[in-house]
Amino acid sequence: MVARTAPEPHLFRQALGHYASGITVIAGVADGLPVGFTCQSFYSVSLEPPLVSFSVMRTSSSWPKIRASGAFSVNILSARQREVSNAFARSGTDKWSGVDWAYSGFGNPIIAGSLTWLDCTLFEEYPAGDHTIVIGQVREMASINADEDHEPLIFFKGRYVNSM
User: HSE of 125 in the Cβ direction (CA atoms, 13 Å)?
Assistant: First the structure.
């Protein structure tokens, strides 16, 4: 029998980079200020009740601040929002500088120009290796007018693939 080992992290990441994904910004409020981070591991979980999920690095400094409030927003970015995605992917900077946003009806940050936004309560969390799987229950949402010409921001093989 041949002993099998787990794939090396950089090879695992490279292989999974062949799966295209949309880009979101997960946001909340901590100490009266908006907090957020870029996240590409987001998906729907259930229609009844309406549940969504994302994964976040356990070393994230933003997620613990958002988690403390028990609620968050998910902003699904458009192809026109590369700069927003890049800003929220950085640590230690003022991610909200120059970003047009407003509060949802429940008080979470909604980024203007997002294709769709969802306001959620924290439903459940599960540890998973170096990440935490978060499930949220959607309580409010809205989308850009479907008649407008907006494309999603797509990430594939380590880069954005939209032409915008």
Answer: 15
Which stretches of the chain are assigned E, i.e. beta strand? 21-22, 24-30, 33-39, 42-46, 51-57, 71-76, 101-103, 109-111, 116-128, 131-143, 154-156, 159-160
What pLDDT shows up at residue 101?
A: 97
pLDDT digits (tens, 9 = 90+) for 72-120: 999 999 999 999 999 999 988 789 999 999 999 999 999 999 999 999 9
- Cβ-contact 51, 135 below 8 angstroms: yes
User: For the chain, how many residues are written?
Assistant: 164
Structural domain spans, the chain: 27-160
Q: Which CATH class is domain 27-160?
A: mainly beta
Identity (one letter) of the amino acid at 121? T
Please check whether residue 84 is in contact with residue 99, taking contact to mean a CB–CB distance below 8 angstroms. Answer: yes
Sheet holding 131-143, edge to edge: 33-39, 24-30, 71-76, 116-128, 131-143, 51-57, 42-46
